[in-house]
Amino acid sequence: MTPITTFADSRVALFGLGGSGLATALALKAGGARVLAWDDNPDSVARAEAAGIETQDLRGADWSDLAALVLAPGVPLTHPAPHWTVGLAQGAGVEIVGDIELFCRERAKVAPGSPFVAITGTNGKSTTTALIAHILRASGRDVQMGGNIGTAILSLEPPAAARIHVIEMSSFQIDLTPSLNPSVGVLLNITPDHLDRHGTLEQYAAIKERLIQGSDLAVVGIDDRLSREIAERRAERLVRVHVPREAVIAADALIARDAAVFDPDGSRLADVSGIGSLRGAHNWQNAAVAVAVARALGLDAEEIQAGLRSFPGLPHRMEEVGRRGRVLFVNDSKATNADSTEKALTAFRDIHWILGGKAKDGGIFPLVPYFERIAHAYLIGAASDAFAATLEGAVPYTRCETIERAVAAAAEGADASAAPEPVVLLSPACASYDQFRSFEQRGDRFRDLVRALL
């Protein structure tokens, strides 16, 4: 835990008592703050009370006596409408912050300048965060990893001069962190996402840009327009990362191509060929970013290459579950939209594709250019009719309804294929909520079914 001493002897309101909210309440209490917490979920309130946290419906609180409102990142700050606690705080002139803001203030107090890597982007941030942390740990560094990737930041060990915090940040978390000042700030990419919470794409991009504005060193992917414009506004202490899709190569950028990472002068810095957890051009970008961060933190080429080679990947993100004969089974359940599924489709051929669930806007129409890579599609869940209409006449498909039927049918189809390495790929391009609680539960079920086959 990181005790938050910057609010010692102050009364602090907190709304949102999920995993990170409860961790924040405990960290504030450990640092000497008087915490008044609430949640709309009675079960969350009960868990907080059992942990010794004082709770009260904040509608009845005396806001004139509160030093801050700590808001969970899942609670709307601005769009589609501010949460009722936001209105109460603003009316009383009470600042609104998140748990990572509390970490930043504690870092400034107890270990100013301690290594702090913050990673954001629409896609790839979890893999990149895990990859950076793995490379650093493999080299013997003291590393704490968390934030949006799973472990609440205040559940981690506190900042220290020789301890590196590697933190994934969503746009919601950035919006609640006004003094964000990482040693290294990473922006991978920007594509439309969470516009219901930010209003416009431009506002979403502006929030993402804040992460690198306060960083000592910025590492920015320049393969989309918005990120490229942000990089152009950052004149100093900048590493640009480019994955060329055509012959045009950006000058003065780390280049990721042909499963390798190159310096602007053309010298090879790292090789990711043959690393199953880093398949695909999108992972070449992730690797290049990790190389840039690791170099900035003092690792040499051998340490970086060893870390890349031993990276196990993330569960549910192009996770190689196993093989049966020639057939490779891949769990990409985290691909909950077409943009994410595109990364998997570009990494393989001869694909027996399991897809479906609760569809996002646009469905799978953006994936039409990759249909030639698909041997057969196996449809599950609520999106089956819509997806069948897109596939009709272009890709043979089978309506399976459930993941159990889909895995069995896909395995049979792949076994019968004449391809040298057919792939059974779960990459749903959909949310899971029609049949599963989460993409994790969906991926776990796929993994269990495949292991039973193996």
TrEMBL record:
Protein name, as recorded: UDP-N-acetylmuramoylalanine--D-glutamate ligase
Locations listed in the record: Cytoplasm
Positions that bind ATP: 121-127
Coiled-coil residue spans: none
Described function: Cell wall formation. Catalyzes the addition of glutamate to the nucleotide precursor UDP-N-acetylmuramoyl-L-alanine (UMA).
Superkingdom as given in the UniProt entry: Bacteria
Presence of the UniProt keyword Cell division in the record: yes
Annotated Gene3D superfamilies: Mur ligase, C-terminal domain, Mur-like, catalytic domain, NAD(P)-binding Rossmann-like Domain
Pathway in which the depicted protein is active: Cell wall biogenesis; peptidoglycan biosynthesis
Keywords: ATP-binding, Cell cycle, Cell division, Cell shape, Cell wall biogenesis/degradation, Cytoplasm, Ligase, Nucleotide-binding, Peptidoglycan synthesis
UniProt cross-references to Pfam families, sorted A to Z: Mur_ligase_C, Mur_ligase_M
Catalytically driven reaction(s): UDP-N-acetyl-alpha-D-muramoyl-L-alanine + D-glutamate + ATP = UDP-N-acetyl-alpha-D-muramoyl-L-alanyl-D-glutamate + ADP + phosphate + H(+)
Gene encoding the protein: murD
Domain Mur ligase central: 119-294
GO molecular function: ATP binding; tetrahydrofolylpolyglutamate synthase activity; UDP-N-acetylmuramoylalanine-D-glutamate ligase activity
PROSITE patterns from the UniProt entry: FOLYLPOLYGLU_SYNT_1
Family: Belongs to the MurCDEF family.
Lineage: Bacteria, Pseudomonadati, Pseudomonadota, Alphaproteobacteria, Hyphomicrobiales
Transmembrane segments: none
One GO CC term, this protein: cytoplasm
InterPro entries linked: Folylpolyglutamate_synth_CS, Mur-like_cat_sf, Mur_ligase_C, Mur_ligase_C_dom_sf, Mur_ligase_cen, MurD, NAD(P)-bd_dom_sf
The protein's Enzyme Commission number: 6.3.2.9
GO biological process, one term: cell wall organization
Residue span(s) of domain Mur ligase C-terminal: 316-430
Annotated source species: Methylobacterium symbioticum
